[in-house]
Amino acid sequence: MITRRKFFRNSALASAGLIAGAGSAGMACSNRDNPGSYDIMEEALKFRKINAHEHVYLGSEPSSLINAADRLGMEKLVVSLPVTVEDRVLVTPEKFRECNNLVLKAMKLFPDRIMGQFYINPYYSKESLEEIDRCVSAGMVSMKGYYQVKINDPLYYPVIEKMIDLKMIILMHTHCGIGVGGYRTKYGNIQANASTPDDFAGAAERYPEALFQYAHTGGGGDWEYACKTLRDYPNVYVDTSGSNNESGMIEYAMKHLGEDRLFFGTDGSYYQGVGSILAANINDDQRKKIFFDNYNLILKRSGNHVD
Amino acid sequence: MLIDVSANIGHWPFRQTGLKTCRELLGNMDRYGVEISVISNMNGIFYKDSHAANEELYREISSEKRFRGRFVPFAVINPLYAAWRHDLLVCSRELKFKGLRLYPQYHDYEITDPACIDMVRCARDEGMVIALTVRMVDSRLRSWMDLSSEWILKDVIPLIREVPDARYMILNVSGGIMLNDEDTALIRGTDMIFDTSGRNISDLGSLLKKYGNDKFAFGTHSPILDYLTGLLRIEALADNEADESTREMLRSGNAKRLLGI
């Protein structure tokens, strides 16, 4: 008998199977009252997934990314390639175009699996706006910002306004660690221009019609601080990616942000990304929203949704 | 069968968690099919006299009949504190604890401190397993009152080199899993396991090749980390990375061997 697990294991490109399994996602966790019957792979594979935060050529080739996606039943991956250099002047238009060309290459290699996300540096405003046009024309679906410029910096305003017109979301790298400015208890950032939750709040207040994605609540920042800061900004969504799969993070985010503002993501931490959502004390309808529906609704605004 | 080698009960003072008691933990174990959990009491990290936490753990495990056979208790003892030898022998001989968890960073001593080495030798002679936790939490989001730095794997190597014939569990490996050849050989030659809860267990298939199929075991690092990622890393292994026999070793076989249960 071919089990669902075997099917995924034996399939190099299992997207058809992923789609076929979507119908069961709304079921309750019926087997959890029966000790010993929990099949984690069955649970992992029964949910359709859009991975809202991943990278390519940043330590992983497209093929290894797809390998991980097949293991864990990720149907679509939204990928970008930022330049990991803090000095904004050094991240030139040539460099971000080069990154985006690599993402386009990955999209061509796996057109049914990889959705491209363009990366720009708003310090070079004119070139960034031109690059957004180029990438959208080539089929990319959203934007990635990194730690060269804060999300609430005026340099970002024309970019945000363009993204509002495009009805696309801005995924911004974040940091929320302690010890900045001499305050032991104040959350700041290690990189001078990384965006903090408070910076997101500023941008969201100025542009309530824009769509923002607070990156990786599991990425090492204080997710409690982030969720509490962002609770009153309904146009800020958070992705749950990152290596730090602390218990209770998903439930806490849901308590403060609601079940419609969370996206599944991995940012290189595939097992934590899936495991933390499976382990969360939430129902399967909520899991379905986080794994797939919430981000798909964002994609729908620009006509890039799945199905 | 699943054995979780890295669970805790007790209170983590810097944020709210669930699964603080044996009763709560047992509920999760039953829900996910975990037969046995190796547990220690996190309160012992923070009490000056950590042995009080061991007594709490013993009382808790003894409090309900259904806990019998489901928990394998490990002691938490500070070798710099008074009467550690007495406490260790009580844990081993009277309370029947199977192992000893060390927290050098929290208890403020070096891992090669003569008192630590002395206590590890004593625990070895009592037949106890030594558990070292690479980190309790990710220091990037630590409380301002918590440790400001965390270990990586090579930080525990000096103790294994000093007492190579003890049995070890190295838990929540979050940094430095790729040791050099000399340290890799030491690990391969030691009776030890890594649990699967740590973020460095990102490519378990390759790690099995590097360190051996007998060197890994399912662990949750509960209640700090989510309960299922450590299991997912095992169950998502491809057939060419682990056959069913290897998976069983990871689920429970290696833990049984090390713990002698």
Give the secondary structure arrangement, pairings included.
The complex is a heterodimer of chains A (307) and B (261).
Chain A: H1 4-10, H2 15-20, H3 40-46, E1 50-55, H4 62-72, E2 76-80, H5 93-109, E3 114-119, H6 125-137, E4 142-145, H7 157-166, E5 169-172, E6 177-178, E7 187-188, H8 197-206, E8 211-214, H9 223-230, E9 236-239, H10 249-257, E10 262-263, H11 270-279, H12 284-301
Parallel strand pairs in A: 1-2, 2-3, 3-4, 4-5, 5-8, 8-9, 9-10
Antiparallel strand pairs in A: 6-7
Helix pairs in contact in A: 5-6, 8-9, 9-10
Chain B: E1 2-9, H1 22-32, E2 34-41, H2 43-46, H3 51-62, E3 71-76, H4 84-94, E4 99-102, H5 104-107, H6 114-125, E5 129-133, H7 157-162, E6 167-171, H8 181-188, E7 192-195, H9 204-211, E8 216-217, H10 229-235, H11 244-259
Give a written overview of the molecule:
The complex is a heterodimer of chains A (307) and B (261). With 307 residues, chain A is an alpha/beta fold. Chain A has a single domain, classed as Metal-dependent hydrolases (TIM Barrel, Alpha-Beta Barrel), CATH 3.20.20. In chain A, 41% of the residues lie in helices and 13% in strands. Chain A contains twelve helices and ten strands. Chain A has an eight-stranded parallel beta sheet with strand order 1-2-3-4-5-8-9-10, with helices on both faces. Chain A starts with a helix and ends in a 6-residue tail after the last helix. By secondary structure, chain B is α/β, with parallel strands linked by helices. Chain B has a single domain, classed as TIM Barrel, CATH 3.20.20.140. In chain B, 38% of the residues lie in helices and 16% in strands. Chain B is built from eleven helices and eight strands. In chain B, strands 1-2-3-4-5-6-7-8 form an eight-stranded parallel beta sheet, with helices on both faces. The radius of gyration of chain B is 17 Å and the shape is globular.
